[in-house]
Specification:
Helices cover 44% and strands 13% of the residues. The protein is an alpha/beta fold. Helix 13 crosses helix 15.
């Protein structure tokens, strides 16, 4: 039968109960060993890292290392650090009133030592839950040694009538206060070199110096640092002696396939239940949305060093549903389906999440976003329809000849943004060769998704220079490519 230690209120009771104190790194290690043996998931809700980042992180924890997570923005670095809290013991005892979470069996601060010397086994004990054992600091150029380590507090000295030679005038910074906790410093290269130097002794020797006071405080902290490779050259670097004291450096990465990216987006999207009830999203639309981020990461217009965060897909998905929701509310519909033309609404999400190179700046952020959507359509197109070669003979027949002829002989057609679902379907059904193409090449495609596939076919033919697409105020107009060219002349 396990003992409920949290009912213990004094040091004497803690000793009688046989409580064994542990370093935080041993806590993490022991609990991780148990989870691995039991076959339990250690870092739940993090997708795509099962065979890469998570095994490396587990090895680092088993090795009792301080850790540096190195990767581009939006790669779940901070999330991984926060999930490490679940590997801590649920409760730990601390000397009641201690500023730095003193271990009753190994007191460090003058306050705790004096209290134990005075009260002995009657020393009051409080309990700290693992949820409160996570500290996080964003490294910015204005962070000081006083913020992290501590400083002399003249007000405390005056109130207590103490000399500045007395170590009781010290006000502890974030790191001592995070004793026996996980402490995360995000964007480590942004921290000034002299501040990084102040971390040396804490990591290795366990002592700190504050305004001439050299305190022997063997702090018990699990450090996790995060850094972006771009920062090493653009804004700063991790100084070599500090890097040498970080046990494991783990490289993170973006999702490697659309299926994983979709899991992340669906898990992280902040959606209203009324929104999801009102708007149906075809699987193909979800795939297309993720493909946009894949295209952006390989685009000549986007700075690959900066990366394209997973948040780009998450906010784009939220905007996509909001675009369809707004259209349904305006028309008074009780239910609607996402259309490819709704992707115009995700452009603000894309432009806010990508860093452009010079060529991209020349094109303009909105134009680059439209190019990325077209590239995503082009990439998915061959999965559903026959491939279109760049070079074709003039007399060579293709599966798209009848559809191209339909547009050549007619005046094209328009898809308006404010079409009701019935008008939208009627417009797409009014192109018989398109219906026939889908019957031939995708006969088993889900009926509720087939209209999105029809739009993908149209946009794909535009991307392959078989048709032309023109955006006007109310919607999109599709025409024969050469007829449009001649009428333009």
């Amino acid at each position: 039968m396990s003992i409920d230690y949290t009912k213990i209120t004094t040091l004497g009771e803690l000793k009688k109960a046989g409580y064994q104190t542990k370093d935080i790194k041993d806590e993490l290690r022991d609990n991780l060993r148990e989870k691995i043996r039991a076959g339990e998931e250690t870092f739940s809700g993090v997708w795509g890292y099962e065979n890469s980042v998570i095994p490396e992180l587990e090895r680092a924890i088993l090795s009792r290392h301080n850790i540096n997570l190195l990767g581009l923005r939006g790669q779940a670095k901070t999330r991984l650090a926060r999930l490490m809290v679940n590997l801590l013991d649920e409760w730990i005892p601390v000397v009641e009133g201690s500023e730095i979470n003193d271990d009753p069996f190994r007191p460090m601060s003058r306050f705790a030592k004096q209290l134990i010397a005075e009260k002995g086994d009657g020393t009051p004990i409080s309990w700290l839950h693992r949820a409160e054992r996570f500290y996080e600091k964003l490294a910015t150029p204005d962070v000081t040694v006083a913020d992290l380590i501590g400083d002399v507090d003249p007000i405390k000295a005056a109130n207590l009538k103490l000399s500045y030679a007395d170590d009781r005038v010290i006000h502890f910074g974030m790191i001592p206060r995070a004793n026996r906790c996980i402490f995360v410093i995000n964007e480590l290269p942004d921290l000034q070199a002299r501040i990084q130097v102040s971390l040396f002794n804490i990591l290795q020797e366990g002592d700190i110096q504050i305004r001439g006071f050299k305190l022997r405080l063997p702090l018990d902290i699990q450090f996790v640092f995060t850094a972006n490779p771009e920062d090493y050259t653009n804004r700063g670097s991790i100084v070599t002696p500090l890097k040498d004291r970080i046990g494991s450096q783990i490289l993170t990465h973006y999702p490697e396939d659309i299926e994983t990216a979709r899991k992340i987006t669906e898990q992280e999207s902040n959606l209203d239940a009324r929104q999801t009830d009102l708007v149906y999203v075809p699987d193909l639309a979800k795939d297309l949305l993720e493909q946009i981020s894949f295209e952006a990461r390989n685009s000549e217009y986007v700075d690959f060093k900066s990366g394209v965060s997973a948040r780009a897909s998450i906010t784009a998905f939220e905007n996509l549903l909001s675009t369809a929701e707004r259209r349904a509310l305006l028309s008074g519909a009780d239910r609607t389906t996402v259309r490819l033309s709704d992707f115009l609404g995700v452009i603000p999400s894309i432009t806010g999440k990508i860093e452009l190179v010079y060529e991209g700046e020349q094109e303009g952020a909105d134009t680059v976003a439209e190019i990325l959507i077209d590239d995503a359509v082009k990439s998915l197109f061959p999965k559903f329809f026959p491939k279109i070669n760049k070079l074709e003979r003039k007399d060579e027949e293709t599966p798209y000849d009848e559809l191209a002829l339909w547009f050549f002989e007619g005046e094209g057609f328009e898809l308006l943004d404010d079409y009701t679902d019935e008008e939208y379907k009627r417009a797409l059904d009014g192109v018989p060769p398109m219906t026939e193409l889908i019957r031939q090449h995708q006969p088993d495609f889900p009926k509720e998704d087939v209209y999105f596939l029809k739009e993908l076919l149209l946009w794909g033919l535009v991307a392959h220079k078989k048709l032309s697409k023109h955006r006007f105020t109310e919607g999109y107009q599709f025409k024969d490519l050469y007829g449009s060219f001649i009428s333009g002349l």
